[in-house]
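quick one, two chains, predict together pls
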Amino acid sequence: MAGAGGGSNDVQWCFSQVKGAIDDDVAEADIISTVEFNHSGELLATGDKGGRVVIFQQEIENKSQPQCRSEYNVYSTFQSHEPEFDYLKSLEIEEKINKIRWLPQKNAAQFLLSTNDKTIKLWKISERDKRPEGYNLKEEDGRYIDPNTVTALRVPVFRPMDLMVEASPRRVFANAHTYHINSISINSDHETYLSADDLRINLWHQEITDRSFNIVDIKPANMEELTEVITAAEFHPHQCNTFVYSSSKGTIRLCDMRESALCDKYSKLFEEPEDPSNRSFFSEIISSISDVKFSHNGRYMMTRDYLSVKIWDLNMENRPVETYQVHEYLRSKLCSLYENDCIFDKFECCWNGNDSVVMTGSYNNFFRMFDRGQRRDMTLEASRESSKPRQVLKPRKVCAGGKRKKDEISVDSLDFNKKILHTAWHPQDNIIAVATTNNLYIFQDKVN
Amino acid sequence: MGQRDIISYETSVRRKSGIRTAAKMCRLDVESAVKGHEQHVNIIPSSRYMVGRGVKRKLSECEDPTLDLPYPQQRQMVLDLCLNKLQSCQRRAEPSLHRSVLLANTLRQIQREMRQEGVLHSLESPPPAPSLPQALAAQRQSPEVAPTPSDRPDTPVATFSPSPLCEDDNAVSGCIGLHKRPWSEDDGKSPDLLLGSFEITNSTSYLTDLQLDDIFEDIDTSMYDPSDFSVLACPSPRVNSGSSLGSDDNLKAFSSSSALQVCLNDLDHIMEILVRS
């Protein structure tokens, strides 16, 4: 599988690290709800159901060793969102972090946007490794010295101290969404960003918190006529006027903000006609798109619905250019999956650095990679059993029916409680972060 | 470790030498120490290994038994599931609009199909009045859907209806024996009203629109005293919310059953909430 560096050598994925508690008793607050690398790949942020953000920083473990591997260690942890109660509607607002997006780095500090269902916050993460010492009028602990005892003048100097990483909320963007926020996306203009809920998309300026522009509104006048909701939205990586949003009916609309202030009329509508032979009661539910991601080069976009990953060329609206089946063996199980609610699971997907491979999660802690160039796919598992340092992951195979071969797993043995919904790929290297329910696995390609 | 008792905490300290002093706060900081992980684990062939694990939850009912059922039964099962889910959807602390819309669309699709096939009986269901139950639903903490219709009169599903009036009306309107499955407009309405309730909870104008006293003057709470009550109603999909309790003679047509007690308790609960507010 071609890696970020190109070439035709197969990448072998090895276990690198796992973060999180080992015991099987999962506290609900620890469930990971989002994973995101920053633009350099040096930082890896996770958000959880308890409203916390944990940031890991890549450190080169040991430069002298030939097999030097980089490790991610905790850099900062902070409570981003707290649970709230909306008294008007008598509804709890969950503190679960739905999305984290990093801002491009402009100075020494790092900035990220994190959002729960209703409120987006801009966090500044900065390092401090010096502190002023020797104040003229203050003690070291801050108390003021009696001025009568001061006989000399001295100017404080900066002295090195232990590195401290501070996270502080710089902006709070609140009260702009009636429905649950599902996406945030930072514009390539480095000034604005969008936030999308079930029915509306708002455009914000990063500096202004008391105003936002509504750019998409699909709320019908009569809510009883509602049949479609927005499920994800993203800005184009280079064109600051272009964004897309996906719907629960499996369509993607591309909008151009130059056309009008309210982008209710799309510029392009991407929709694949339904395959009549696959029609079932659940056709609509499984066609609902759970994630949409532009490729890094901006020419393609990828969508994830319940059973497949589709790659669309932005110039062709009537069908995707590539379709990959993630777990087609589930198609005959849709009724059971509907019963146990798994059919509503929202899987995300991601591109590798050079857009040659895409990745998404599945059940039983499996995740899938599709090599677009070589037309090959791989199934891997994130498990404690394959967690020896630098252990090469063995490809897994699910037996759909008939005689099960050795090492294959039958569909009925799959654990539907173990789902991988969130994955992220380092922007340059072959390093991936895969989130199981409460653990974060980091895999890297095999060195030499 | 690192559970909900983490209060606002904005800094972590990290020493350059690599020793982390704030490790306690970082629940993701636990490296799984797989040193000397039992070697024999790798020796177990994977087929046995999977079975031996024992924690995997098998896909419920194994192979989809529904595939064996004839199409109408399949459809019926999906329909029932749909209605159940819509109800439980509304009872959650956080109703998800996305999920509700998907369920409602599936429901509508099945109903449309059934109607086309002429399966539905056109019962004399009076024209529904959507605004009233919506408004009353909004008064409550969590708006709720019309009760699941049941074609087995002895096991009605204990559910809420969007207004106590409707409930009473259902009590009035039917005898158990009468009930087929009065779908049609009512169930077509339930997904719509469900979505309507998402709207109403966001607006406050309904309070000025309603003549609340008019609604409440019809309610005779004496009938909800369980000790006095000798007859109970089978909850059916909300028929007409607008009409009052009306005909006392219909009340006499009821028969009681233990299963229906649950419905009465629900009614009690509804009344409590309304009276409190």
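DSSP finds two helices and 32 strands in chain A.
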